[in-house]
Write a structure and sequence with these properties.
heterodimer; A: 408 residues; mainly beta; 4-stranded antiparallel beta sheet; 1 helix; 35 strands; B: 615 residues; mainly alpha; 1% strand; Afadin- and alpha-actinin-binding protein isoform X4 (chain B); WD repeat-containing protein WRAP73 isoform X3 (chain A)
Chain lengths: 408, 615
């Protein structure tokens, strides 16, 4: 694997365009757009202050730069470099900013989540949405700063679901994105709505409660409650939720270290995956990183879905060999008496062809799981490491190649 | 009766003693003593006998004996006395009789005594035995009593423990319930507190919102260089009052449309799956029936009940098969019928397999006595084969089903229908393609032949023309010869020699010409080309044309030298007809086509014909 030269980056703000042609990165207050193949600088924009967040529009024509400290949003165009747009929230402050799926509206969340302002780039209209809910996405939100999960757009960009809270009750509003009309408004039977997510087919909305209560609610597009699911009571509940790309399955990862998969016909659990500390099943292939230098700690990489993944500690050279069953996975017992403990299934990712589900349990140092579009390889990003796992799809046996990535 | 023989000095006393002793002590020792003492001993006889009766007291002893005997019922020892005073005479006969009687009696008594003694012994041993048994039983009884008490004790202890554990369990459950209640109450408390705080927070937010809005910031604005068009290119529409409702309705419509589409899609998927599964079940049922039906050939009384059901089932299914089209409907009765019939078949199959298992186990016990019995291995192999076959057939049917479904699915869009439209004619199309390729080949061949014919015709024409011209020139020459000698002749001669001469001589002349005209003609191949062309061209009447053609040819040959080098170099000295095979794309160059056309009309036609062959 070849690596290019190191480019300067600030605040981990670096994104490829949706069409894959350009790469935008920011350094302090400058926005640099490079060509994705040659990495030559194509455009260079200067904003008024340090940039906290950038986002490409869905059609890859515009880039949004959010300056939270100044309450400003600046939009740049790739086609016309001299075009500029500045949105000033003034004293309302700015906490989050994102594009609408049609790429022509910007949704700004003001400070204290007072309201969401919808600015239109086509018309001179401004819309306000009151009482939005401040939901966090979980641990991955730490990397993405303040990404709000209270807003969810359907995949085709037609509808927007917004989680609201009024008078100590949770509501969900569904808006039509073409004219920002309110389509449905209904209350949810949750204590504290933690997140909402559309199914990829855009017909079912999953809403889940905070970790104090295990509850998943499924609503149809027209606001009817289809089903609720609750696995157990009293213990800490749901940590992460993911839909399968075909909308057939909903995977729910919880703080007890298990992933439960619901099916779309009956909305009942069809299977449950655990993350045991010792792997005894001879059908599972465990890849263990064998290190040449004396290790600080051994890392294990087990690969047959879904398995927990451990981040190996640093070593200059490493290769993977198949470890013999039974293998006991090294786990760190995190402090259980603190809030938001680092236990439970924190990250879920379905492969694009619906075959595999990759999960991360516990305190393993994997920050993100990302599947390739063809569904035969998985990239794992740790704090200091980057690992690329390639699956042979005939039997699902994986070979893993660990790489030392240059970390920024 | 006591033993008369054991006599001591004092007669009566001892006798009575001994009699009483014998009555009282039944011990075997004593009885032995008695027995051995009952045998008359020669030693003591005389002493014993003399002890009772001596010579002095004969009369007294006789009298005494008589007295004793008469009291015992024996006849008297004395004779019948005539008178009372005279001494009675001893009746020896009576004495002997009495003795005999006494002996017989004695014997009888001995026997009886023996019997009694044996009986006594028996009874004694019985008694011993019984006493032993009694003692043992008593011991056993004692032991079992003790055991029972021990067990009872244990039982009691266990029950105690059980009760304790139950109690503990109840306590734990109560505690759990209590904790849950505590949790619930705490949860409500926290919720209440949270709500309270939230209300406060909302109030703060409202206040802040008011403040923010009231400030009437001119700063909250957006400045854009120019407004961007909509993503889909449409223009925005005005939002007036009457269109609000229509917007709303339209949105509702669209939303319901999306939902309905999704449901329809899902329902279709489920229906397809259902149909597939039904087909599989039907197939399974048929196969099970076919598996079971060959059994009716075997003359087994056990299989009679199963064959009865199989036959009836087959008949039933024959009737059902006619209604197969109705099975596509998913009504309740059809579903039930299918599941019931499958269950029935499965039960029959199961019982059959169990019977076979029993038979096999019997065979193992009895040995291979029955000829009708299939050996286990064969049977297993048979079943494995059948299973494989079933699997194979099922897979085939599934794939066929899928293909059929795909074909017959009505909700295809236009693209797929257009693609599928000609699918039935695929075979014919392929055949047609083959025939077309054949036809094309033939056409090519025909073309080749035609070309060769045309070439031949052209050559013929050329030769004829050449001949004509030759004749004309000859005639001219003749004519000129008749008049004057022209300088033209030298050229003609040269040129004439060009025709009659060999190729070698031709080449230098040909070389010189283009070299004069175009000193930069590139390769050796081109002049050779031109020379060959010269051979086929009419030379004399169109010398200028010839030069022209040669120039343009050389031009083109220069430019196409690359093309022509290799074929020329490979065949440098071949006959003239080869030139027709050369791939001249010269005349196809548009630039100087016109220039060449006049002189190279024939070559143009040649190459034109050739052009068709170019791939």
């Amino acid at each position: 694997m070849n690596f290019s030269e190191v480019f300067k980056l600030s605040s981990l703000l670096c994104k490829f365009s949706p069409d894959g042609k350009y790469l935008a990165s920011c350094v302090q207050y400058r926005l640099v757009v490079r060509d994705a193949n040659t990495l030559q600088v194509v455009q260079l924009y200067t904003c008024l202050d340090q940039i906290q967040h950038i986002e490409w529009s869905a059609d890859s024509l515009f880039i949004l730069c959010a300056l939270y400290k100044r309450g400003l949003v600046q939009v740049w165009s790739l086609e016309q470099p001299e075009w500029h747009c500045k949105i000033d929230e003034g004293s309302a402050g700015l906490v989050a900013s994102c594009w609408s799926p049609d790429g022509r509206h910007i949704l700004n969340t003001t400070e204290f989540h007072l309201r969401i302002t919808v600015w239109s780039l086509c018309t001179k209209s401004v819309s306000y949405i009151k009482y939005p809910k401040a939901c966090q996405q979980g641990e991955l939100a730490k990397a993405a700063q303040k990404f709000l999960k209270s807003l969810a757009f359907t995949r085709d960009g037609r509808y927007l679901a917004l989680a609201e809270r009024r008078d100590c009750r949770d509501y969900v509003s569904i808006f039509v994105c073409s004219d920002w009309q309110l389509l449905r408004h209904f209350d949810t039977d949750t204590q504290d709505l933690a997140g909402i997510e559309w199914a990829p087919n855009g017909c079912v909305l999953a809403a889940w409660d905070s970790c104090l209560e295990y509850k998943v609610l499924l609503y149809s597009l027209d606001g009817r409650l289809l089903s609720t699911y609750c696995a157990y009571e009293w213990s800490l509940g749901i940590k992460s939720v993911a839909w399968s790309p075909s909308s057939q399955f909903l995977a729910v990862g919880s703080y007890d270290g298990k992933v439960r998969v619901l099916n779309h016909v009956t909305w009942k659990m069809i299977t449950e995956f655990g993350h045991p500390a010792t792997i005894n099943n001879p059908k599972i292939v465990v890849y263990k990183e064998a290190e040449k230098s004396p290790p600080l700690g051994l890392g294990h990489l087990a690969f047959l879905p879904p398995r927990a993944v451990a981040g190996p500690l640093s070593s200059p050279e490493s290769k993977y060999e198949i470890a013999e069953v039974p293998v006991s996975l090294q786990t760190l017992k995190p402090a259980a008496d603190r809030a938001n403990p680092r236990i439970g299934v924190g990250a879920l990712a379905f492969s694009p062809d619906n075959y595999f589900l990759a999960t991360r349990n516990g305190d393993f140092q994997v920050l993100s799981l990302c599947w390739h579009l063809s569904g035969d390889s998985l990239a794992l990003l740790g704090k200091d490491h980057f690992c690329l796992c390639f699956l042979e799809t005939e039997e699902g046996v994986g070979t893993a190649s660990g790489q030392r990535g240059d970390h920024t | 009766m006591g033993d008369w023989m054991t006599v001591t000095d004092s007669e009566n006393k001892n006798i009575s003693q001994y009699t009483s002793e014998t009555k009282m002590s039944p011990s075997s020792l004593y009885s032995q003593q008695v027995l051995c003492s009952s045998i008359p001993l020669s030693k003591n006889v005389h002493s014993f006998f003399s002890a009772f009766c001596t010579e002095e007291n004969i009369e007294q002893s006789i009298a005494y004996l008589d007295q004793e005997l008469t009291t015992f019922g024996f006849p008297s020892l004395y004779e019948e006395s005539k008178g009372k005073e005279t001494k009675r005479e001893l009746n020896i006969v009576a004495v002997l009789n009495c003795m005999n009687e006494l002996l017989v009696l004695q014997r009888k008594n001995l026997l009886a005594q023996e019997n009694v003694e044996t009986q006594n012994l028996k009874l004694g041993s019985d008694m011993d035995h019984l006493q032993n048994c009694y003692a043992k039983l008593k011991e056993q009884l004692e032991n079992s009593r003790r055991e029972m008490i021990g067990l009872q004790e244990r039982d009691r202890q266990l029950q105690c423990k059980n009760r304790n554990l139950h109690q503990l369990l109840k306590n734990e459950k109560d505690e759990v319930q209590k904790l849950q209640n505590i949790i619930a109450s705490r949860a409500t408390q926290y919720n209440h507190d949270m709500k309270r705080k939230e209300r406060e927070y909302n109030k703060l937010k409202e206040r802040l919102h008011q403040l923010v809005m009231n400030k009437k910031d001119k700063k909250i604005a957006m400045e854009v260089l120019n407004y961007v068009g909509r993503a889909d290119g449409k223009r925005g529409s005005w939002r007036t009052g009457k269109t609000e409702a229509s917007f709303f309705l339209r949105n509702e419509d669209e939303m319901y449309k999306i939902l309905l589409n999704d449901y329809e899609y899902r329902q279709k998927q489920i229906l397809m799956e259902n149909a597939e599964l039904k087909k599989v079940l039907q197939q399974m049922k048929k196969e099970m029936i076919s598996l079971l039906s060959p059994q009716k050939q075997k003359p087994r009384e056990r299989a009679d009940d199963s064959t009865g059901t199989v036959i009836s089932d087959v008949e039933e299914d024959a009737g059902e098969l006619s209604r197969e089209s109705m099975w596509d409907l998913s009504c309740e009765t059809v579903r039930e019928q299918l599941t019931n019939s499958i269950r029935k078949q499965w039960r029959i199959l199961k019982s059959h397999v169990e019977k076979l298992d029993n038979q096999v186990s019997k065979v193992h016990l009895e040995g291979f006595s029955d000829e009708d019995m299939i050996s286990r291995q064969d049977h297993e192999q048979e079943t494995e084969k059948l299973e494989l076959e079933i699997q194979h057939c099922k897979e085939m049917i599934k794939t066929q089903q899928q293909l059929l479904q795909q074909q017959l699915a009505t909700a295809c869009d236009d693209d797929t229908t257009s693609l599928l439209r000609d699918c039935y004619l695929l075979e014919e199309k392929e055949r047609l393609k083959e025939e077309w390729s054949l036809f094309k080949e033939q056409k090519k061949n025909f073309e080749k032949e035609r070309r060769s014919f045309t070439e031949a015709a052209i050559r013929l024409g050329l030769e004829r023309k050449a001949f004509e011209e030759e004749r004309a020139s000859w005639l001219k020459q003749q004519f000129l010869n008749m008049t004057t000698f022209d300088h033209q002749n030298s050229e003609n001669v040269k040129l004439f020699s060009a025709f009659s001469g060999s190729s070698d001589r031709d080449n230098p002349t040909a070389h010189s010409r283009p070299r004069q005209k175009k000193p930069h003609s590139v390769s050796d191949g081109s002049p050779v080309c031109t020379s060959k062309l010269a051979r086929s061209l009419p030379a004399s009447p169109s010398t200028s044309d010839f030069c022209q053609t040669r120039s343009c040819v050389s031009e083109h040959s220069g430019s196409v030298s690359a093309l022509n080098v290799t074929p020329e170099e490979s065949r440098p000295s071949q006959a003239g007809r080869e030139c027709a095979d050369q791939k001249w794309s010269v005349a196809s160059r548009p630039g100087s086509q016109e220039g060449c056309r006049s002189g190279c009309s024939l070559t143009y036609t040649n190459s034109h014909v050739e052009k068709d062959d170019l791939p």
